[in-house]
Amino acid sequence: MASSSALSRISTLQNHISPLEANNKLRSLVKISPEVSDAISNGRAVVALESTIISHGMPYPQNLQTAKEVESIVRENGAIPATIAILNGVPCIGLNEEELERLASLGKSVQKTAGRDIAHVVARRGNGATTVSATLFFASMVGIQVFVTGGIGGVHRHANHTMDISSDLTALGRTPIAVISAGVKSILDIPKTLEYLETQEVYVAAYKSDEFPAFFTEKSGCKAPFRVDSPEDCARVIDANMKLNRQAGILFAVPIPKQHSAAGNIIESATQRALTEAREQKVTGSAETPFLLARVNELTGGTSLAANIALVKNNALIGSQIAVALSQLI
Ligand code: PSU
Ligand code: MN
């Protein structure tokens, strides 16, 4: 028999009360677009999207083009996109076209905002592009359950010396949201990243594969803890996690589409060179990922950018299907 406090917890869950609904003060601090707000209240499928990938992950204007295309893919597949960023100190959930353009054209002058940086950007009334960790925070605040990105951060190579472990991993460990990514880049230590996700109690599955993907390549040499084969499989995992009130997150790792993985080896050797350059130029901390992404793109003559765009769009397609399957389950 469940105790009465457990029962009231379950009934709260079934009504899907998000922290925002539970705490009116939060409402005055964030701006939710009318479309996203309607979709959430009506139980429609919503997909959160991060913004560091726009400001720091890709150059202008490809970043704007990709952000718009990703939003269209989400809509075409029956879900509502909610791109999250901080504009003039206001966390925005769902950007309109003008806001998206502003963010994309400001590029790297926007503060890369991980969980650690949120209060700083809000206090200074600055502009912040949210990483996976900060996007998880805001998505969870408004009750979004599915979040699409390109690649999440992870345990960096040499982390045993530098302690450089992305806060994406600890945020996933305490936020019950499903993140769809193409795995993690080989600029990171993939086996250690998987170990750390296990420590954080994050559910990890590869999509239609036994192996955890390595962003630009379909395989990393590491077996994924679980395998899922359809959006419905994914939705059932999210539903079980939520009904059990587990506070840890979920990572669905979707391999890059085959036609774009051919360049994987060229990109891998460019990555090795960029890593050496980063060490030589002493690029560390939050500057490391943007440096490596830009350098690998230069070294491959744009091939890595094309592959990056293709995999983000594929993740948006699958993420929307998962969000729709979830909305039909609940
Ligand atoms: N990996 C990518 N592209 C990206 C990022 C990571 O392939 O754009 C971004 C994401 O926003 C991710 C962040 O959340 O970098 C992680 O940064 P750090 O390693 O500093 O935690
Ligand atoms: Mn870091």
From TrEMBL:
Its cofactor is Mn(2+). It comes from the Eukaryota. InterPro entries: Indigdn_synthA-like, PsuG. Its EC number is 4.2.1.70. SUPFAM superfamilies: Indigoidine synthase A-like (SSF110581). GO terms for cellular component: peroxisome. Keywords: Glycosidase, Hydrolase, Lyase, Manganese, Metal-binding. Homotrimer. This is Pseudouridine-5'-phosphate glycosidase.
